[in-house]
Amino acid sequence: MASKAKNSDVKVLKGQEAEDAILQYLKRMNRPFGAVDVSANLKGAVPKAATQKILVALAEKGEIVQKTYGKTSFFVANQASIDAVPADKLTELEVECKTVEDSNNVLAVEVKAITAELSKLKNCPTDEELEAQIASTKKGIMQLTDRLVPLRSGAPLISAEELVKIDADWAKWRAEWIRRRKSLHDNINASNACRLVANYQGSFWQLATDSLPPQEAEMLLEDLGIEFDTTEHKTLEKGPLCAVQVTNTRSNLKRKRE
C-alpha cells in the first residue's frame, strides 16, 4: 500500500520523454535489463507495457542492443554509442577513488574510537547513582568507625581461644535448639512407634493439645516453658550467621564421607 501511494506521486512519462528517460537510464547503468526491471527502476514513470514497446523500438533504431534468452529479452546500451573514457580521465578517477577510500578509512577509525568511548560512557554510573554510592560508602565508613571506638578507647580484645570457645558454644546450643524444635514440631508418622495415634498426621504439640481448650493450651505452654519461634528467631535463621554454620556442617559431612 505504501509503494502504491509513493508511485502515485511520480509523473508518468509519455512519447519522446519516456523514450529519452529509458535510453538515458540504460546508458547510465550500462548493464542488461529486462522491460519489467527498467519500469520498476524508473519508479513506474513509464508503464511496463509502454517500456517493452519503447525498448524494442530503440533496439530497431540501433540505440540499444536486444538479446533474447529463451522467452526473455534483455536490453543494454549500444557500446558503440558510448564515449570511451580517456586514459588520463581514468587515472584521475582512480586517484580520486583512492583519496575517498583513504578518507573513509580515517573516518572509520574515528567512528570506532568514538563508539568505544560512547560505550564506556554508557557503562559509567549516572550522577544519581554516584550520589547513592557515595552516600552508601559514607554510611559504611560511619558504621566501621563506630565499631572502632571501643578498640581505640582501650577495651580488652577477645582472644582467639575465646572466639573458638564462643563458636563451639554457639554450635552446641544451636544444635540443641534445633533438636528440641524438631521434637516439638516434626510430623508424626503412623508407621513409627506412635501406633496409638495411627493415621494421625500433625506435630507433637498439636497432638498434645488437640483436646484442650485454647486457654488451657496456653497455660500448659507457659507451665512447660515452651516458646515458639519469634520474628527475631526467623530473622536469625535466615541471616549470615546461621548460613555460615550450615555451610560448615555440610563441609564436615563431605570430609567424613571422603
Report a brief summary of the structure.
The protein is mainly alpha-helical and 258 residues long. It has eleven helices and two strands; from the N terminus they run H-H-H-H-E-E-H-H-H-H-H-H-H.
General description of the model:
The chain has 258 residues and is mostly helical. The chain contains eleven helices and two strands. A two-stranded antiparallel ribbon has the order 1-2. Strand 1 (64-69) and strand 2 form a beta hairpin. Helix 3 crosses helix 4. It starts with a helix and ends with a helix.
Strand content: under 5%
Lateral strand order in the biggest sheet: 1-2
Q: What is the helix content?
A: 55-70%
Total number of helices: 11
Using only C-alpha atoms, the radius of gyration works out to 46 Å
For this structure, the quaternary state is single chain
Mean pLDDT: 79
Low-pLDDT regions: 1-6, 188-202, 252-257
State the order of secondary-structure elements, H for helix, E for strand.
Answer: HHHHEEHHHHHHH
Q: Which term fits the overall shape?
A: elongated
Q: Notable features of this structure?
A:
2 strands, disordered N terminus, 11 helices, 258 residues, two-stranded antiparallel ribbon, mainly alpha, disordered C terminus
Write the layout of secondary structure elements.
Layout: H1 2-7, H2 15-29, H3 35-41, H4 48-61, E1 64-69, E2 72-77, H5 87-123, H6 127-152, H7 160-185, H8 204-209, H9 214-224, H10 231-238, H11 240-257
Antiparallel strand pairs: 1-2
